[in-house]
Specification:
Number of domains: 1
Radius of gyration: 19 Å
Structural class: mainly alpha
Shape: globular
Largest sheet: none
Distance between the termini: 34 Å
Number of helices: 13
Helix content: over 70%
Order of helices and strands: HHHHHHHHHHHHH
């Protein structure tokens, strides 16, 4: 009898991990589309990229919600708006990193959000962090230092700074989700993020007079980025809903690995030795932290 009860739970957990790996694949595909668009059109602004990606995402969410304003707007609590601000800044910073660095390095710097969540959760949420998790955080910081170390040129410095900023602001978005998520559905939280990102980047691009792309290849790549991101966000939501949070979050470490692989295969972007070492450390920490957190029940990985 216990086996009959536990079997479906195990199957659901395995399916959650599988969905998270699929989600990671799609987010890596999105990053590759964005990086390819900037490689194809070197004059493309990251503000324009963010506006188009967010705009596609926003339209898709409205269609999925069937225009239900109550579902999209939720309870309107301030944490939703803050999540939108943090998420919008993170998206623009991430796209800036993608424009100046390799896809893999930008993805790993963005993935440092797990490190900042573990560091800030005790202060923001009052959650205790176990000693093993702190050890994983310390290892992660070594990986961050190796990966964030500037190589050469101002654009490289800008790209790495933007990558770190995307990770830190992603952590802020995840922490506000913990406060907004109790009374709002995932589609509501994602809607605020895409709405703020679309409005902010669109307004800024117009104010700065940034040129908008007309090349069909660039537009097709950005359309692909928006669509893959939408599907990935929905899959991630389902993965956290049916799976155990620790293993699902650990499976998310596949995302930067996919990004690194895609960057090497499709764009010829090969990380140097320091970056590769930093990536290896971050992968081990990204897998270990959520599993240790779930084991000690002190720091929980953020919901999508």
């Amino acid at each position: 009898m216990p086996e009959a009860v536990l079997e479906p739970v195990a199957e659901r957990s395995s399916r959650g991990v599988g969905l998270m790996i699929a989600c990671s694949f799609l987010f890596a595909t999105m990053a590759t589309f964005v990086s390819s668009a900037h490689a194809h059109d070197p004059g493309l602004s990251t503000l324009v990229t963010s506006a188009l990606r967010s705009g596609v995402n926003l339209v898709a969410l409205v269609i999925l919600a069937r225009g239900d304003r109550r579902l999209l707007l939720g309870d309107g609590r301030p944490a939703l708006c803050m999540r939108g601000v943090f998420g919008g800044v993170s998206l623009i910073a991430y796209f800036t990193a993608l424009a100046h660095l390799g896809v893999g390095e930008a993805a790993f710097l963005n993935q440092t959000s797990a490190v900042w969540v573990a560091l800030f959760a005790p202060l923001v949420l009052g959650e205790r962090t176990g000693r093993l998790v702190w050890a994983a955080v310390a290892c992660s910081l070594v990986g961050v230092a190796l990966l964030a170390q500037p190589r050469a040129g101002d654009l490289d410095v800008i790209g790495r700074a933007a990558g770190l900023l995307s990770g830190i602001t992603s952590a802020g978005a995840y922490l506000t989700v913990r406060k907004a998520g109790a009374t709002n559905k995932p589609i509501t939280i994602v809607f605020y993020f895409t709405l703020v990102a679309a409005m902010g980047s669109f307004t800024a691009s117009l104010a700065l007079g940034e040129p908008w792309p007309h090349d069909p290849v660039t537009l097709a790549l950005l359309l692909g980025a928006g669509l893959t991101a939408t599907v990935a966000q929905l899959i991630m939501t389902e993965a956290y809903r049916i799976g155990r949070a620790g293993p699902v979050a650990a499976a998310g470490a596949a995302g930067p690995l996919f990004s690194t692989l895609f960057g090497a295969v499709f764009l010829g972007q090969i990380p140097d030795r320091h970056a590769a070492l930093g990536m290896g450390i971050l992968v081990l920490s990204a897998i270990g932290m959520p599993l240790l957190a779930a084991r000690t029940a002190t720091v929980h990985p953020p919901p999508p």
